Amino acid sequence: MSDIETIIYNQHPEYIIDERIIKKIIRFLQQIEQTEIKKLTIIISTDQHLNRLKQEFYDQDVLTDTISFNLNEPDEPVDGEIYISADRIVANAKKYEIKSEREFANVLIHSVLHTIGYEDGDDQSRKKMFALQEKYLAEIEYQGIFTKREDSENE
Known about the structure:
By secondary structure, the protein is α/β, with parallel strands linked by helices.
């Protein structure tokens, strides 16, 4: 499998993202899923940004943790964009009583699985996808992937 062009933009001022860990997780998923990923662009942003995207592309006025877009044609290597809301990561981590870095890794895995073709639109496919996420989450190292800046004032 070829190298993956991974571009990461952290647009959220309150959090630090470890690009090395993100790239390692993406390579792991490419290898274990036996799929060709050409390019992934990952944008870490805010609730407001993802809400605008959700309204524009899905006509839904809701908060979401991630949105994935495939830019490749069918039967071509994956070329995608993944948007992740750092605000939702933190809120969901509190809600589920888990660490934010675990939630970030989980959402990243979920998003990459979407770009390689997994869907979660019905109960059966959702169960399959969430089971894979849990399996892969248990097999990777993600400590330090997502941390709060020390100079950030608000939680």
